[in-house]
Specification:
The complex is a heterodimer of chains A (about 170) and B (about 350).
Chain A: E1 3-4, E2 7-8, H1 16-43, H2 47-67, E3 69-70, H3 73-98, H4 109-117, E4 119-121, E5 127-129, H5 152-168
Antiparallel strand pairs in A: 1-2, 4-5
Chain B: H1 3-15, H2 18-55, E1 59-60, E2 62-65, E3 75-78, E4 115-122, H3 125-134, H4 137-145, H5 149-157, H6 167-182, H7 186-193, H8 197-210, H9 212-228, E5 230-232, E6 238-240, H10 249-282, E7 289-294, E8 297-303, H11 307-320, H12 322-328, E9 338-343, E10 350-351
Antiparallel strand pairs in B: 2-3, 4-8, 4-9, 5-6, 7-8, 9-10
Helix pairs in contact in B: 3-9, 3-10, 5-6, 5-8, 7-8, 10-11
The chains are: A mainly alpha (about 170), B alpha+beta (about 350).
Chain lengths: ~170, ~350
């Protein structure tokens, strides 16, 4: 957060005369930078690119940004329903594949660790292996706190490894 | 990542029974489907809802970033009126997914009553640019004669009449062409197509033999980058590549790949943007408007009575690139082509024949 003399910066806390001065300096500095950059643009022979493409594009995009895009809210609600329906089904299918109870929280990290690596936190806060639950994959990456990692990057790797082995054995999805 | 640990993880997988492995595969398939759906919902439904609440006029606003990428491609994001996540007044138009998992999110971006939503997509833009900059005669010939490029290149690659090329062979040829442009190796193709690596290498080599200009171009670019330390496009844009002087071979290779890719992707993007500027100039005085641009396409909204005229103007400008010729003096060695879709929304357009 931008602060001025310990206070949160807000134009309304700045006396008008200071705003005027600040803006004048801003304009002056911009003009100076413009001259300097223009020189560089000329040196690199980028004038045409700037004049014929970049500059007119800023105008074109300004217009598009102002225009915005019209949204059909009824359609959006319909899509919302469709998606929620699909999420519900995907959720049921996923729970079945993971051997989870209906009320288990799929989005909890501990739950994912238990499903994917068959590890669980004991009362002393240590990660221990559990029998007869989960996929039993080997955790090869850990978080700073020492938990088997379930971040997106790691899971993408784990998934790829599983798929590689799956294909190598010539197995088919049932 | 610790390599030893990864090897143990692989050994553990190796020791699993088929049933255990199947269970793991099933879990990950379902998990990624679930994640995709919840992400779609939170970004494009909940995100859009927040945006609409903030704007209060059934509109979303997109912010375009002219300097958001190293290639000069335009990126965009949902605009916001403050710093918090809840201050958004739009979602990224850029990543608005095509129909995926049977849900067509793009369908909620619509044209007003009595108007059409028009999408104009440049056909195979990057490969056309490759043919032009590499001056690759076979590729130029294919584009000029209007044959399907990937069947044609599959024919040359697999030494067959293009008519007899199988769907899979066409797909492989297509992948090889993009591997070349975006940088990929025999390993990439081998693992994607599940074929031995030396077979993949063979395929890539025969593709390159079919289009000798591409290999020559790659060498020319490599030499240029080695000499100057940057790559430059036909528009004069630079990309500095200091990593070509790295002591590490992998880092150098990556820099050369970026340089090659830059000369194609950046030019492709600039050609489209010139086309868009030409279109905007020609639409002055009409009610139709360009409302967005994403990837290799531009999106317009036009009153129904103007649609035909607008499509004529836009295809003429994009195919004949007057703006590009007049302002940059660039004459392409290949023709440009467009796909036109018209509908009532961004998602429901159907092919439009002039």
């Amino acid at each position: 957060m931008l602060t001025v003399e310990g206070k949160k910066f807000d134009w309304k806390n700045i006396p008008l005369i200071q705003c005027v001065e600040g803006n004048a300096k801003d304009t002056y500095a911009t003009a100076k930078v413009y001259a300097k950059l223009l020189e560089e643009v000329r040196q690199k022979k980028l004038e045409k690119l700037y004049d014929k493409l970049i500059a007119p594009l800023t105008i074109a995009f300004r217009d598009m940004e102002f225009e915005g895009l019209l949204i059909d809210e009824n359609k959006m609600n319909e899509l919302d329903q469709q998606l929620q329906e699909k999420i519900k089904l995907a959720d049921i299918a996923l729970r079945a594949a993971a051997g989870l109870e209906e009320d288990a929280n799929l989005n909890s990290t501990n739950q994912l660790v238990k499903i994917i690596y068959s590890f669980e936190k004991n009362d002393d806060g240590e990660w221990i292996q559990v029998e007869d639950f989960g996929l039993g994959l080997y955790p090869f990456e850990f978080t700073k706190k020492g938990a088997p990692s379930t971040n997106e990057e790691t899971l993408t790797k784990v998934k790829a490894m599983v798929e590689e082995e799956f294909t190598a054995r010539g197995l088919k999805v049932e | 990542m610790n390599n030893e640990e990864v090897n143990i993880a692989k050994a553990v997988l190796n020791n699993m029974s088929d049933d255990q492995l199947k269970a793991a595969k099933k879990f990950f398939d379902r998990f990624s489907e679930y994640k995709k759906l919840t992400k779609l919902h939170s970004v494009y439904i909940e995100g859009a809802r927040t945006a609409l609440q903030n704007t209060g006029n059934s509109r979303m606003y997109v912010k375009y970033n002219i300097d958001g990428t190293v290639t000069g491609r335009i990126s965009n994001s949902g605009a916001n009126v403050g710093r918090k996540k809840t201050d958004k007044i739009g979602v990224s138009f850029h990543t608005l997914p095509r129909e995926s998992l049977d849900v067509n999110i793009r369908d909620y971006v619509v044209a007003p009553e009595g108007h059409d939503f028009i999408t104009i997509d440049m056909k195979a833009m990057e490969l056309r640019v490759l043919a032009h900059v590499a001056n690759e005669q076979n590729m130029i010939h294919a584009f000029k004669s209007g044959v399907d490029l990937h069947s044609y290149s599959a024919g040359l690659t697999f030494n067959k009449d293009p008519k007899d090329v199988s769907k899979l062979e066409r797909q492989i040829a297509k992948e090889v062409s993009f591997l070349t442009v975006y940088g990929g190796t025999a390993y990439t193709l081998a693992s994607k197509r599940n074929i031995p690596e030396d077979r993949a290498e063979e395929i890539i080599n025969s593709w390159l033999a079919a289009f000798p200009g591409v290999g020559r171009y790659m060498n020319t670019i490599d030499e240029y980058i080695k000499q100057f330390g940057y790559a430059k496009t036909i528009f004069g844009r630079y990309r500095h590549l200091p990593n070509v002087r790295s002591p590490f071979k992998g880092v150098r290779r990556e820099a050369f790949r970026q340089g090659l890719n830059f000369t194609i992707q950046s030019a492709a993007s600039d050609i489209l943007l010139c086309g868009m500027l030409g279109v905007i100039e020609k639409l002055k005085g009409m009610k139709a408007k360009v409302v967005a641009t994403v990837h290799d396409s531009i999106e317009l909204i036009a009153p129904k009575e103007e649609t035909r005229k607008v499509v004529e103007i836009v295809s003429d400008e994009l195919e004949n690139y007057y703006y590009l010729r007049e302002n940059f003096g660039i004459n392409l060695k290949v023709p440009l082509g467009v796909d036109i879709e018209v509908g009532s929304s961004f998602g429901n357009g159907v092919e439009y024949e002039l």
